[in-house]
Specification:
4-stranded antiparallel β-sheet, 5-stranded antiparallel β-sheet, 11 helices, alpha+beta, about 45% helix
Length: about 400
């Protein structure tokens, strides 16, 4: 979920909470995390943060000391974070450390406080001595001119043969755009999500016609002035997709702490800002990469041919799983009561009833085999009888002759 605006807000949070705070000791990593260890230990150092698209960089700067050994022992270190699906920073007391804190920086004061990187799903990562990824393009928010030029000058790239909704997630050109931002941008411009990206971006120039009116970093501190400026700009940017890729993320930044926050259960302000993403009445469809796209109206000519098939398969699985889990839930709830044994007996009884006809079929098959064998035995028996009956008939004739002779 964290996209360009959320990572920039995270950097602002770190700079605000760590201002004037000295940190000390080693950087500790959780045993569960698979990210690399941070080999940094210093008696006193400061932390600052900066963001670029979907990346945040923490800079650990040791405090100058008269001890020359300390100078040689530790140099400044940059740690680049990528938040994945649920990453964020928290600054708490040592005793209130979040459950899924995977990288911790401890303050020098007593009682100590901790700046921690929290990631419940563990999709995020960090890189010690890291730099901005070279494959990522300029930031959509604070490197707008470079971002725009990078897209316009590379429209011949094969990446722009794909649908516009999928190209907007390509961080090589749209560093900072994510799933909810692409839905909001295309909805405002009434662009079908599955149209060729090149047809949408062709004709745009590397220099923005409204560049003189664009907001800068200082405008973020004055949300009211920025919002009024944006209302004026909307009239002039009706077909400029690149322009909205710059202004829409800034609107989320203007929400400040009222926007997306993984620890907050109340997203009312952020949900009120959304016009398309997860909004009732909007359509949804999985793109070719399996990401859900929210839109309104016609999806476009490059929509997946069978968009319902993956959902149907998943629904079938969910229904099967639901039936399976429902039985499990019933078993669990009934195991807490005394009636659980009776349910198990009933289930066994049903299974035995189903097995009864199978047991009955086996003797029937044997009976058929006996019937097939009986005719062969009947043919053999008459042959044996003929051998035994012939001498018997001859003996009877002889006995009858003897009796006749005796009578005479």
């Amino acid at each position: 979920m964290p996209e360009g605006p959320e990572l920039h807000l995270a950097s602002l949070f770190v700079n605000k909470m760590c201002e004037g705070v000295l940190f000390s000791g080693p950087v500790r990593k959780s045993e569960v995390s698979k990210s690399p260890d941070v080999a940094f230990a210093c008696e006193a150092y400061r932390i600052s943060a900066a963001s670029r698209g979907k990346e945040v960089k923490l800079t650990l700067t040791p405090i100058k000391s008269d001890d020359t050994k300390a100078k040689e022992a530790q140099q400044p270190m940059d740690i680049v974070f990528r938040f994945g699906m649920s990453g964020f920073f928290r600054f708490t007391a040592e005793g209130e450390l979040p459950k899924h804190a995977h990288l911790c920086f401890y303050s020098k004061e007593k009682p100590r406080r901790v700046l921690s990187y929290v990631d419940a799903r563990r999709f995020g990562s960090w890189q010690p001595h890291g730099t901005w990824q070279p494959d990522r393009g300029p930031c959509i928010m604070f490197e707008y001119k470079s971002f725009r030029e990078n897209v316009v000058t590379h429209l011949s790239d094969r990446a722009f043969d794909r649908p516009i909704c999928e190209v907007l997630l390509n961080q090589k050109y749209f560093n900072g755009i994510g799933n909810y931002l692409r839905a909001e941008i295309l909805y405002r411009l009434k662009i079908p999500p599955f149209v060729p990206a090149r047809t949408v971006l062709e004709g745009l120039e590397s220099e923005d016609a409204c560049e003189d009116k664009k907001p800068v970093k200082n405008d973020i501190l004055n949300p009211k002035a920025a919002r009024t400026a944006q209302k004026i700009q909307v009239k002039n940017e009706s077909a400029d997709l690149l322009r909205l890729c710059h202004t829409v993320p800034l609107e989320v930044i203007h929400l400040g702490g009222k926007g997306y926050d993984p620890e907050k259960a109340d997203y009312s302000d952020f949900e009120a800002w959304l016009q398309c993403y997860y909004v009732d009445g909007m359509k949804s469809m999985r793109d070719h990469n399996g990401r859900t796209m929210w839109f309104k109206g016609d999806p476009g000519p490059m929509a997946p041919k069978d968009p319902k098939s993956p959902k149907a398969k998943k629904r079938m699985k969910k229904e099967d799983d639901h039936d399976y889990t429902s039985v499990k839930k019933e078993a669990r709830t009934q195991s807490e009561t005394t009636g659980s044994k009776t349910v198990k007996k009933k289930i066994k009884a049903v299974q035995t009833k189903k097995d009864v006809p199978q047991k009955e079929t086996t003797p029937r098959k044997t009976v058929k085999c006996l019937k097939m064998d009986t005719p062969q035995r009947e043919h053999k028996q008459p042959a044996r009888r003929r051998k035994t009956t012939e001498p018997a008939e001859g003996s009877r004739r002889r006995s009858s002759r003897l009796t006749r002779q005796n009578v005479k």
